Amino acid sequence: MEEIRAILNELHDDVDYDTCTTLIDDRILDSFDIVTLVAEIDDKLDVRIPPEQMIPENFNSLKAIAALVERLENEI
Amino acid sequence: MLFVSKEFVAFIAAVIAIYYICPKKFRWYVLLAASLFFYTMDDVRNLIYLAVTGVTSWGLCLILEHITSDASKSIKKIKDKEKKKEFKARVQRNKRIFMLLAVLIDLGILGFTKYADFVVSNVTALFSHRMRVTDVFVPLGISFYTFKTVSYVLDVYRGTSKAEKNFFKLVLFVTYFPQAVQGPISRWNNLSATLFEGKNAGLKPFASGLIRIFWGYFKKVVIADRLVVPVMALTHDHASYQGAYVFVAILMYAMELYCDFTGGIDITIGISECLGIKVEENFILPYFSKNIKEYWNRWHITMGSWFTDYIFYPLSVSPRMLKLSKWSRSKLGNAFGKRVTVYISCFLVWLATGVWHGAAWNFIVWGLLNFVVIMISQELEPLYKKFHGRFHLKDKAWYGAFEMLRTFFLMGMIRMLDCYRNVPVTFKSLGSMFTSWHMKVFTDGSLLEIGLDLKEYILIGICAVVLFLVSLYRYRTGRELREKISGSPDLTFACCLVLLMITIVFGAYGKGYNTSQFIYNQF
Asked: What is the predicted pLDDT for the residue at B469?
C-alpha cells in the first residue's frame, strides 16, 4: 500500500489518498496518470495490470488500487 | 431518410406509438423492424454489410464464450500451479485467434469501404501512376456501428460482457436506428441494459425526451443549417477570404459544428428517452473546457473513451511498451523516460482518431495536431504549477474565462482543417489572421455578402445568447434546464410549442437552403 501511495504522491502530491474515493470520477487521475501508475506498479511491484482491469472502480481510491494489486498478485 | 425531414418526424412518431401499443416483451422487435427499415430506406445494400458484421461478430463471440466456459470448468481439475498457468496461456491464445478474426472482419469492411481509395491513390502516386478506387459503396454510419461491434467483441473477449445468444438482439444493438447517423458509440453493457426491456419511459423522462428532440431540431435547423452557407462561402473561396474573415469562419464553424453534432445527439438521446432507453451522453459543455484534455473529456465522449479503452490502455500497458518504458527511464531519466511510452501510445491513438474521421491528409494532420498540443501542455504542466503557485490565478473567474476562450480558439483553429480540407491552405489561412487582418471587414458591410443578411446575424446572435444561458445553467447547477421544465406538463407543452414554432418560422430551409445531412454522418 505504501509503495502505491508513493507512486500516487509522485503523480499528484496535493491529494489526501486516505480519504479520497473519487480519483477517477473527479478526474484527479487522467488516462496519462493511470498508464504511468500501471507502468510504475509493473516496475516496482512486479504486478502486471491487464487493460480489462483498467476501469474506474479499480482506480478510484488508494484502497481500491491496493486491492486490485493484491488480487492480481494472488491470481495464477 | 434524413433526420431532418418530415418523413423522419412521422417515422419516429409512428415508432413511438407502435412501441407503446405492443406488449413489453415484443417492444424490442418493433425497434429491430424500425432500425432495419431505416437502413433499407437509405440503401438496401446496407443490409448485406450489416448481416456480415452481425453474423461474424455474433458467431465468433459465442465461440469465445464457449471457450471461456469450457476452460473455467477444466481448470478446476488441474491442481499443479505451473500446468494451470500453461493451460490459461493456451486458452488465451485460442481466444485471441477468434477475437482477432472478428475484429479483422469488422475493421476490414470499414477499411475497404472507407480507405481503399485513399491508400491506393497515395501508394500508386508514389510510382507516378495515380490510380483510384471509385464507386465503393459506403454503408450508412459504418464507422459508428463498426466501433460499437468491435467494442462488443473486445468486451466478450475480455470477459467484461456476456456473449448474446439471440442473434436478433445483437442486430438491434448494432443497428439501433437513432444512433445510425452519428452515434453515440454505445457499449453493449450500457445500451443492452434498457434496449430489450421495453419498459415505459415514465411521464417526466418522456417529457424531457420530447423537449430534447425539439431542442435538437432547433439547434440543427435554425442555427447549424443556417451557418452552412457562410462557412462554405468563406472556406471554399479561401483566396478571397483571408485575415479577419478566417476569424469569422472559426467562430461560425465552431457554432455550426456544435449545433449540428449536439443537435443530432439531442434528437438521438431524446428519442431514446421517450422509449425508456438509456443512451450514453456524448457532450458535456465542451466549450466550457479550460484545456484540451478537458475538452476531449467533454466532446464526443463515447469516441474518446473508445479510443482510450481499446487502443490507448492496451497499447500503453502491453508487455513491449512496459519494457520500453523501463528502458527509456534508464536512458532518459525517470521523469521524462516514463512519459515516452505514454506519448508513443498517445501519438498512435490520435493518428487513429484522425484516420477514423476520414481518409484524407487533413484529418490525419488534425489528429496529429491534437497530439502535439496535448503533449506540449503535458510538458508545460510543471511550469503552469509554478506559475499558479506564485500568482494564484486559478480561483479568479476572469482567468477561468480566459482559459475557456484560449481552448475554444485553439480547438477552433485546429478544427478548420475539416473545412478547408487542404493542409497548406488551412495553415496559410490561419496564418493570414496574424499578417493581414483588416478591421474594416466588420464595418464596411462585407460580412453581409457571405450568405447572411443583417436579420440573420441578429437571429444567430440571439440564438448564441440562448445557447450560452442554457449551458451556463447546466454549468452552474449541474442539471439540465429541461429536467426542471419537464416536471410541469404545462411548461413542457409550452416549451415544445415555442421550439417548434421557432424551428418552423426561423428554420433554414426552403429557397436558398438545402436541408443537409449531419456533418458527422460523413465520418
From this structure: 96
- Chain A CB contacts of B319 under 8 Å are 48
CATH code of the domain covering residue A46:
1.10.1200.10
Tally the domains of chain A: 1
One DSSP character per residue, A39-72 reads HHHHHHH--PPPGGG-SHHHHSSHHHHHHHHHHH
Has this prediction a pTM greater than 0.90?
no
Distance CA A47, CA B139 (A): 44
Is the per-residue pLDDT at B95 higher than 80?
Answer: yes
Q: Which residues of B touch A54 (CB under 8 A)?
A: 309, 313, 317
Q: Residue B197 is which amino acid? A: E
Cα first-last separation, chain A: 21
Interface A-B, measured as beta-carbon pairs within 8 A, has a size of 58
User: Residue B324: exposed, middle, or buried by beta-carbon count in 10 A (0-12, 13-18, 19+)?
Assistant: middle
The pLDDT of B424-434, averaged and rounded, is: 94
Decide: helix, strand or coil at residue B1. coil
**Cis before B230 (ω within 30):** no
Cα B423 from Cα B428, distance rounded (Å): 9
Cα of A65 to nearest chain B Cα, Å: 16
Q: Which domain holds residue A35?
A: 2-74
Task: Give the integer Cα–Cα distance in Å for B512 and B491.
Answer: 35
Q: What tens digit of pLDDT does each residue of B342-396 get? A: 899 999 999 999 988 887 899 999 999 999 999 999 889 889 888 988 888 888 8
Query: Considering Cα of A37, then A39, then A45, then A50, what sign does the dihedral take?
Result: positive
